[in-house]
């Protein structure tokens, strides 16, 4: 296991080093106070469509940073390497998942453009500070994520459904959860839906499309936030020759502070 | 001259039709209550760099909409045509201005991607409603715009200086002007600088790089807002084979309402 005793206290550089050294686990709860990011690398030829897709769907695809073609590091991961510093990756060829490696050095190409997209793990510490417990942390599982029946605005060849993450929240705290997360628009902001999964086309909360199921405690409502796995769902639909994302829930831990993305 | 008697009362469709029919004049004060947009069309091959440049410089290049390659209309200009509906255009080849036509049909290519970028004319009605007079409207001239000594964040081949528009504001109303315009981040938002043009590398307020000089009344401070001509300055520096923008101050009048871009 890891050399890191307290995941919440690890600095981003320590966390990235642990993942680079081979630790594999979801990153919720890691490096408290620092922003986490969804990762998607795509060839330069498809990058315009993906960037436009993100621009047209800012709720699910809020861009924190874009690395130029072939770049493997940047200001959000000082001294890091995007090919090794994420706990686990998903490699797609022609839209099909072909590999889930812990290092993508062997898949890397110099024309890959890497998108870093905001992640709702970033506002979980603020929710906890506001007295809202995070069920998937309490239950020790990855956050559950679902494809919805809502279509994103397409861009060029890129189209796909909105993907959401779900957190159960006590009815009395739903307003707090909305208020707190709405102050973090760069990491998905306020929920997109509260309380009725059927309306999103989700028939079984116990069978998420990504991540793991959480038990919904009595008196809690399911609350749904837009999720940065959305562009990976678009990759599956749109089938670019190559795309490499993080494995859902296994994020890049960045050097940016949560508070960098806090609005008044 | 125009068939339109009251420019402020013209609907966006009427304004676009007047420009399509050959009217040429700056658009400040037109179609009160509707958003205006900077226009820049660039070949698909250079569009990723421009989109990334805009993403990295949101204050000067806030994207309202991007038309897909070859598209000439879109939801912000219902029934319109981006090739004819702007009063005057600037055509660049290899970064050099080669034409200032009132119609770009002859320059059009099917691989051109058109960016519509927020324009500070959009918040001028709100400034007026707040009691702040607009000097260039009162003086009947185009707004003055200046290249500054501030570099934008580059993206791929695209780099250039920040361009600003300048409006003189009475000292007692500068705070009002900040407060009012900060509520419109999608159309440049709050000023980038107040009061000292030297710090922006502007040596002579009477000699703007684009638009026309305005007289600065006694007791007024020059207030500078980021300007959507910034990507055209990047085109001049970065020299893509073809780029077509609006002529500075001669904007696209869109169907979006100013209030669509108002934040709380």
TrEMBL record, chains A, B:
The record, for Gene3D superfamilies, names:
PSTPO5379-like (3.40.1640.10), PSTPO5379-like domain (3.30.2040.10)
Going by the UniProt record, its keywords in alphabetical order are: Lyase
Which InterPro entries did the record assign? Answer: D-Glu_cyclase, Putative_hydro-lyase, UPF0317
A Pfam match is D-Glu_cyclase
The record's annotation in SUPFAM superfamilies points to: PSTPO5379-like
Single annotated GO MF: lyase activity
Q: Which family does it belong to?
A: Belongs to the D-glutamate cyclase family.
Query: In its UniProt entry, what is this protein called?
Result: Putative hydro-lyase SAMN04488693_11240
